[in-house]
Amino acid sequence: MKPETKLAAGAPLAVDRATVHAYADGQPGPFYYQRDAHPVGVEAERRLGELEGGEALLFPSGMGATTALVLALLWPGATVAVADGGYYGTVGLLSGELTRWGLEVSTFDQTGEPPRADLVWIEPCSNPMLTFPDIAAVCERVHAHGGRVVVDNTVLSPMLLRPLAHGADLVLHSASKILSGHHDALLGVVACADPQTAARLRAFRTASGIVAAPDPVWLLLRGLKTLALRAERQSATAAELARRLAGHPAVARVRYPGLGDAVAARYVSAYGPLLSFDVAGAERAAAVERSLVLIENATSLGGVASTLEARARWEGPRVPPGLLRLSVGLEDVEDLWADLDRALAV
Ligand SMILES: Cc1ncc(COP(=O)(O)O)c(C=O)c1O
Fold first, then answer.
1. By the number of CB atoms within 10 A of the CB, which of 24, 172, 229, 333 ranks highest?
2. d(CA 326, CA 301)
3. What's the pTM?
4. CB 132, CB 264: distance < 8 Å
5. Distance between CA atoms of 78 and 104, rounded to whole angstroms?
């Protein structure tokens, strides 16, 4: 049975909020203090590990997961190369706060060859530029130089892509997005290919206290039951909207690997909820944002409700001023198209 089939089954798990569990015969059991582990977290990690094909660890946010990964696995002077066009918070953290720890951070075009670095960070269906790397080729190249590869799999989820099977060492998620799926839980995940790395990260997590609480993890577990269906439906709707937007006179460019990216097509057959498109400039983008009725003008992605925003608001000149990022939810495709078409005509 596929891991995703098993997700929908399974009895509901009680939220055990206890921070302390009594010892048995004077000995701590698998649960003794919540900073080390809790039952809801262990169950979610089991399911996520099955999905990604590795050992999964939860963190209180995607950025918490990134921070823990870097601090636990790197060292002062380590070199990190991060894909251009990916999540701005990742490069922002690494080249901002964490450079004070002695990291040397560079960026590169992930559709080409990766540079030599201790850690190379790629993002298939990068957010918000929607570029797609040749994952296996990047891994081979980086491994030849003794480096490790992290794949941020937030946009696609393990329903559509399992990067560890293509040679990645680590997979990172903002589980606040499609994994939990309802914009009501902030969480992160790291899945590790090898158990030693997982043990190192687990020890760091317990020591540092960068720990996910049971309540959001319970929401994640509930969200996982519908992940397969949501990923399928959101991908289908996004593909149709991308196709229609590409033919719209007010749209200069659609960024979506499902429109003919040959490399992406070697790895996936569906492309997740995210696409970006460019209108004539910042003013036009703002007009679209304000004219939408059904689609929420809000940040984030991967929820059951569609969200759209001009990314220049946060990323400045890193993205074109007219770039609008759309995360497609579960609404009817015709309703979404009517909303977009009307807003683009304003
Ligand atoms: C691709 C990607 N990675 C990581 C993050 C960070 O995750 P979080 O907001 O859960 O800290 C985000 C958040 O938007 C993201 O889009």
1. 172
2. 8
3. 0.98
4. yes
5. 6
Tell me how far apart the alpha carbons of residues 47 and 227 are, in angstroms, rounded to a whole number: 12
227-345 belongs to CATH 3.10.560.10: no
The pLDDT assigned to 346 comes to 87
- Phi then psi dihedrals of residue 95, to 5 deg: -95, 0
For 293-330, what is each residue's pLDDT tens digit? 999 999 999 999 999 999 999 999 999 999 999 999 99
Q: Name the stretches of the chain with pLDDT < 50.
A: none
Taking the C-alpha atoms of residue 99 and residue 38, their distance in angstroms, rounded to an integer, is 33
The pLDDT of residue 2 is 85
Active site residues: 35, 87, 152, 177
The structure tokens listed for 12 are 């509901």
Please tell me the CATH code under which domain 15-224 is placed.
3.40.640.10
Question: Per DSSP, what are the bridge partners of residue 327?
Answer: 274, 307
Q: Is 127 in the pocket of ligand 1 (CB under 6 A)?
A: yes
Residue ranges per structural domain of the chain: 15-224, 227-345
Mutate to test the pocket of ligand 1, among 126, 154, 186, 190 (most ligand atoms within 8 A of CB): 154
DSSP string, 94-130: HHTGGGGGT-EEEEE-TTSPPPS-SEEEE-SS-TTT-
pLDDT at residue 9 in the model = 79
253-255 and 274-278 strand pairing: antiparallel
